[in-house]
Structures are given as C-alpha cells and as structure tokens.
User: Fold this.
Amino acid sequence: MELAQRLEPSTGKHTKLVELLSHLQKQIATDPSTDEPLKVQGDTLWTDMPSLGYTELETWYEFGGDYKDPCDATLDPEQRSRWVNLNAFIAQLTQAAEIDYPSLGEKSTFSPLDKSLRAIWTMVMAFENEQSPASLGNTAAMEAACQWFIYAAERLWENVLHNRTYPEAGGAGPGKRCKGEAWAGFTRGRWGVWEDALKEARGACTDVRMQKLIDDALASLRRAAGDQ
Assistant:
C-alpha cells in the first residue's frame, strides 16, 4: 500500500503491482505437515488475501496519511497525491479481479481483489456530499473519483448491470445530498447522478489539469455504459 501511494498511475508502474497481487491470489500455500492449505484466522493463504483487506482499508481511511478531509481544497499536496494514487491503484486492482456475478438466488462470492465498495465511498464524497460537485472540482475527493472511472469504469458498470448491493453495514447507502434514495449499491439511477455530478464539476472547474482529468473520467464512463 505504501508503494502504491508513492507511484503515479500515469507511469504504468501500478500495473506490475496489480499483476503481482493477481498472481499471488491464484496461489495456495500448504502446510507441509498436513498438506492442507494454510489458514490465517480462517482465511486461506494466498487465495483469500487475508492481510490485504484490513491493510487496504486502514490505508484508505488515512486519506493519504494524516486523516484530513479529501473534500478540503487546502489539503496538503503530498497527502492528496498519495490518496489519489491509492485510489487509482485500488481501481486497477478491482478492474483486474476475476468476478463471477451470481445468478438470482445464488450466494454472492467475490474476489478479495475486488474493492468496488471503495468506489462507492469515494463517489459519495465527491458526488453525494452536502457540498456541491461544482465546489469540489479541484479536491482530492473529485480527483480520486475520476481515477475510479478512468481505471475501473467497466467493472463499475458491470456492477450496475448486475444491481450489485451491499449489506447496510457496508456503508453503500446514499450521501446526504441524496438521502431520499434507497440505494444500497450500484444502480442505473445512481450512475446517472454520478455522471451529472462530473458534468457539474467540469462546468465550474478552472484548473486545467483537473478539467482534463474530469473529461477523461466522463469519456471512460460513457464508453463503459455505451448505449445500454
């Protein structure tokens, strides 16, 4: 996670980290004395990636290392960069995860590399916050949300198509600006709200770099959804 925060996604160096974790996740470590898979607190090493879950979650919640608000435009530039880089990495990991969406009535089982829930949390900050998207155009929250669309729009759209939802404890419900909605995950209506929020942010943004990033995010979002 530390390395992922240091590396800029545009360099392509995240790709090697994603490939490494994807390879590790396919391995099964066995206990030589029993020839049974090794377990860590009930999870199989490496298949369930037991340490990745809590490490990634804790790092995400640090918001770049100092627990400051990603919606604050005055956030320290280094902290902002680290958190944005982390989201870009997690997005690429999520896009690369192998997922078999369950049929109706089947139990959901998803890859430990899939962090789609983190995408929702990021979108809530940037698009469903009490603050308008127009006021967040040049913030870490908006920049991180753009990374999710740039690197994982196809996965996010697949989640929409399969109406992927989460238990209430997962925190996938709507933000305060959308509190009347019954969202518990990915829906077409929510996707539309996110697209409109990106357009609102783009219209008000005066920073050239962020303008391009938002344009790239919108282009990825539209490519993923196509005519569906």
Remarks:
- The CA atoms of residues 157 and 177 lie 22 Å apart.
- The mean pLDDT is 90.
- The radius of gyration is 18 Å.
